[in-house]
Amino acid sequence: MKRWLALGVIMLMSIVVVAYETNASNRNFFLPDPLGGIKIVIDAGHGGQDGGASKGEVIEKDITLTIAQHVEKQLKKKGATVIMTRTKDGDVIDEHASSEKYGTLRERKKQDIFLRKDIVEKEKPDLFITIHANAIPETKWRGAQVFYHKEGHAESELLAKSIQESIRTNLKNTDREALSIKQIYLLKKAEVPAALVETGFISNDEERALLTDKKYQEKMGDAIVEGIEAYLLAKIE
């Protein structure tokens, strides 16, 4: 009996050692999820017939979806609950209200924005992030920039500045600062801290090449996540 008891203890200890060595490099094995209990709505800008900004075959809606999906993945790894306004090429109407029909693209785009707002209102998240890419006629302009609405939630400015600082620190290719903006309906209407991330200029040749590179897209997504986490940790402190 004692021999079997001793063998049982040895086997148990072996399992513990294997589990420890397997998970020792993963801090979540020892610590609670850093974003556990946090809900975030991530919005990939545009979609479907509304491609957003473009240059040749490079279209904004594809860039925003890829970066948004990486942000979703990394936030979930940290324990956050993530709601995506869209997960496919189509717009939000395609995904959430496909039976709705509109006479013009202009009307569809307007209703699509309203639907994104409705998703935020329904989900009642802790944060709302919408991801975009920029384009203007002049090719010299570049650099990711984060925006907030001064008439939106009081903490949106802090959130935007935290994400902007993370992008500056991690990507080291922009000196831009977070700015307030008046025209963005979603930022104004969100009843939670909200920020719009313009990930760069498709109209700039160098930045367009970066924004279509998978590794850079992941770096941008990681920087956004780090900025979100820094904002939330600052609130706790």
Automatic annotation (TrEMBL):
Domain of life: Bacteria
UniProt entry keywords in alphabetical sequence: Hydrolase, Signal
One function term, GO molecular function aspect: N-acetylmuramoyl-L-alanine amidase activity
The MurNAc-LAA domain, residue ranges: 117-229
The enzyme's E.C. designation: 3.5.1.28
CDD domains for this protein: MurNAc-LAA
Signal sequence residues: 1-19
InterPro entries: MurNAc-LAA_cat, N-acetylmuramoyl_amidase_3
Pfam families: Amidase_3
Enzyme class: hydrolase
Protein name from the UniProt record: N-acetylmuramoyl-L-alanine amidase
